[in-house]
Amino acid sequence: MPSQKTLTLGEINISNENSFTLIGGLNVLETEIMALKVAEYFATITNKIKIPFIFKASFDKANRSSIDSFRGPGLKKGLRILEKIKNEFKVPILTDVHDPSQVKSASEIADILQLPAFLSRQTDLVIALAKTKSIINIKKGQFLAPKEMLNIIKKFKKSGNDKLILCERGTSFGYNNLVVDLLGFSIMKKFGYPIIFDVTHALQFPGGLGNASAGRRETITELAIGGLSQKIAGLFLEAHPEPENALCDGPCALKLDKLEPFLKQMKAIDELVKSFQKINTE
Q1: Is the per-residue pLDDT at 166 higher than 80?
Q2: How many CB atoms sit inside 10 A of residue 159's CB?
Q3: Which of 110, 159, 173, 267 lies most in the core, judged by the most C-beta atoms within 10 Å?
Q4: Are 17 and 206 a contacting pair, CB within 8 Å?
């Protein structure tokens, strides 16, 4: 296994060899009041139990199943809300972009920019993201094998950016279903970059409701434990005060009041797994 890269963001060191980092928040910004409430809750809990935290939310979900689905407040208003969260709670921000025209404005607020899974092979978007010199979270496309992430890495490196996170979010398995191949984490770790596991999106049944995605929130603990068992850099997690009323991906979101006990378990699992010495079985 090659040496594992560490990305530094303020006092946070994101690495497969360090204690896990949490990227958490809302799927999409609904209202400013809701966003501030969720950000404060995440910030309070992670500070209490000593987990490095990065807030995430989308200002626009351009890939919703239906034309009638809620997309978010848009670029200008969304970035204003994210900037307020960043300043008020002193936390780094991650947000995703769907078009090269959004990249510059987003990079002025967000500390990490995200390349969406569906767009992970869009070269023009990759080049625009690379030019910001920001840390980039690359969502692995549901249609990609783990080894194919190397092609995306090469695009970024050739475009002048090597500050990359690789994010697993499940692989298409027939229609309306995702599976997570735990062996894929080891394959991607061979590239030397921090690996984040997007456990909530991996719970999706894409398009399972016909005009929206269904999900299986009840299995979030089991899936998260599986991901952390692979000695990775952290988790990507969405939560909502009332998932049944969330405007996007509610069936996958953790109930906000379950965040503290959930994270305490995840921290214990991460510490246990990273205390083990790897056994050479070759």
Answers
A1: yes
A2: 15
A3: 110
A4: no
Q: What gap in Å lies between CA 67 and CA 208, rounded to an integer? A: 16
Choose among 142, 69, 61: nearest CA to 98. Answer: 61
- Model confidence pTM above 0.90: yes
- Active-site residue numbers? 27, 61, 249
pLDDT value at position 207? 64
Question: In order of start, what are the domains of the chain with their CATH numbers?
Answer: 7-274 (3.20.20.70)
Q: At what angle do helices 75-89 and 32-48 cross, to 10 degrees?
A: 30
Instruction: Note whether 249 and 202 are within 8 A (CB).
Output: no
Confidence of residue 119 (pLDDT cuts 50, 70, 90): very high
Comparing C-alpha atoms, which of 84, 29, 17, 70 is closest to residue 211?
70
- Spatial neighbors of 145 by CB under 8 A, at least 6 apart, are 184
Predicted confidence band of residue 230 (pLDDT cuts 50, 70, 90): very high
As a whole number of angstroms, the distance between CA 140 and CA 242 comes to: 28
Q: Rounded to 5 degrees, what angle do the CA atoms 187, 229, 170 make? A: 55
Q: pLDDT per residue over 5-42, tens digit each?
A: 999 999 999 999 999 999 999 999 999 999 999 999 99
d(CA 104, CA 55): 19
